[in-house]
# Entry
Amino acid sequence: MKLLSFLLLILIVFSCTTKQGNQPNKLYSKQAVEATNGMVATAHPLASEVGAQILRQGGNAFDAAVAVQFALAVVYPRAGNIAGGGFAVYRKADGEKGSLDFREKAPLASAFDMYLDEDENVIPKLSTFGILSVGVPGSVDGMIELHKKLGSLPFDVLIQPAMELAENGFKLTEIEANKLNYYQKDFLKANDSLTYFYNGENWKTGDYIFLPELAHTLKLIRDKGRSGFYEGKIAQAMIAEMQPKGGIITQADFDAYKSIWRNTVEGQYKEYNVISMPPPSSGGIALLQLLKGSEAFDFKIFGHNSAESIHIMTELERRVYADRATYLGDPDFYDVPVNMLLDSSYLASRFSDISLDKKTDSKDIKEGEVEIIESVETTHFSIVDKDQNAIGITTTLNGNFGSKVFVEKAGFFLNNEMDDFSVKTGVPNQFGLVGAEANAIAPEKRMLSSMTPTILEKEGKLLMVVGSPGGATIITAVYQTILNVIEHDMDMQQAVNASKTHHQWLPDRVLYEKNGLDSLVLQQLEVLGHTLEPRTAIGKMDAVLILSDGTMQGGADPRGDDTAVGLK
Ligand code: GLY
# Structure
């Protein structure tokens, strides 16, 4: 009887609403930028303009990417960086593809239990704030490698715009002024002196920031390459900032750092070839699992952001994130079962118990008590040049302004990427974690990431470059943006604008963007058993779509200052 009334309730709720169909949500109405000779979409208008300028000078997409990475380190210092890390996925015009891992590494003196007290409890904030949260930075080595392999213009041309922005100053946008104000107290706490970014919560739109020390650091990188950063004055400045406060990074860490070219992970979603980032990012594998799982469902019929769509996406995500927590880590330290995770019979059985009528409890998927606690910051940019060379880079300091430690003598913030390790995993089973050693801390290991720079091909041709910041929400934001284009017929900007949802196995709740879903849809999801929780924003995408006539469509997220600049 109880079951009968429950089913009746579902029927009533579902029948008294029309599907939202292919309606991008009403939160944002930004229009796509279109061009035919190149597209640069980044988190900041000045960085997008730098990338476009490099393309106008005859540089390729990879040149533009190097220039954008350095420009973001100046104008977007809460995530753009030279003392962080990231991942690049590229596809050359001739179809060759690959990925570059310039993720930070754990210092040589790190240990699996370095954030635990004698009772094996996590010491609050030690892995997120201040000196001990810093991983060995990878971005400078990454950009030099990227330029060496794929660049066409001289390196000094690519770093010049960033140097000029640092030296001549740049204006704060409203969003960035507010972010700086928000973190003033943290800056004070983490630094003995702060000449450039402290202003007692008085930052205003249009205020100029000048960073002469950063300009000098960039000059050293220009003139000396990798050793301009990892040796000499700048390396010494970083060590001098960290060592007196108990920091463990030494010159040996800088000497040992190397970015790594890796084979991409690739798989089919219907007639599309999806190329993404392999471990130590979880992004590519999780995205492919989600897309593979989606093939069994008709999202076109469900309709965009209908309760059915969100329910099925949630159920897929619940299972994929449980796998992520168990199996993924740095492949140089842990045998990640990539083939198993992407095997079609494994996936068929993994998703076989998904029901249209009710949610699954996360505890029935897998026992565990851990939350994925990655920060929601980071930044992504997508670039395509006139020949359709394409690159997506997601790069990060982890939290906003990373560890909040600013190397005053060199002009940049240090990351707090160590927090992306499972800091509790040195004590197996105590927290109910299964296979948690995959992402345990070890000297020189790379921490697991969710960054998902991704490229799609259709019929052997470039179709899309896409990615997002957002910690654990990166993967689900990229997944939905792809479905929005392929299944819900949105253009690139509509797909980016559209409101997103997120589930990550634990905690067992669906995040959704405030005012982004119809109230009836929320009700229907509750009837299916889901717990719902609003968020201000999910994802902050910068993406490029190539239409069948070769037109490039840029989608830059209205949730930030993100800007797409096209070359006509
Ligand atoms: N720090 C965010 C990530 O790597 O996913």
Notes: The chain has one domain: 32-169+210-568. Residues 32-169+210-568 form a domain with the Glutamine Phosphoribosylpyrophosphate, subunit 1, domain 1 fold (CATH 3.60.20.40).
